[in-house]
Amino acid sequence: MATISLRVDDRDSKLIRDYAKLKNTSVSDLMRNAIIEKIEDELDVENFDRILANMEKTHSLDDVKKELGF
């Protein structure tokens, strides 16, 4: 397993440690999960933008409901 160091000032360190304690998790798990979620969110947005740009036509929810008879 690899180790990554992160330098933060005392105020940020206290904030991170207190938040991890509040969430009943370790600082390591808190940081790992936050970073992975951030990466996944950005990838989701990039994929959505790429797919939307390649679509020839889009439909509103109202159009879909109307077409399906709802």
What number is the mean pLDDT?
Answer: 94
**Total beta strands:** 0
Oligomerization status of the protein chains: single chain
- Rg, Cα atoms, Å: 21 Å
The number of helical runs is: 3
Q: What can be said about the biggest beta sheet?
A: none
Q: Which ranges are low-confidence, i.e. pLDDT below 50, for 5 or more consecutive residues?
A: none
Instruction: Assign a percent range to the helix content.
Output: over 70%
Estimate the strand proportion: under 5%
- End-to-end separation: 53 Å
Structural class: mainly alpha
Shape: elongated
Element-by-element helix/strand order: HHH
Protein name: Type II toxin-antitoxin system RelB family antitoxin
Organism: Metaplanococcus flavidus
InterPro entries: DUF6290 (IPR046257)
Give the SSE map:
Blueprint: H1 10-22, H2 27-54, H3 61-68
Protein name: Type II toxin-antitoxin system RelB family antitoxin
Pfam families: DUF6290
Task: Kindly list the characteristics that best describe this protein.
70 residues, 3 helices, 0% strand, elongated
Question: In summary, what is this structure?
Answer:
The chain is mainly alpha-helical.
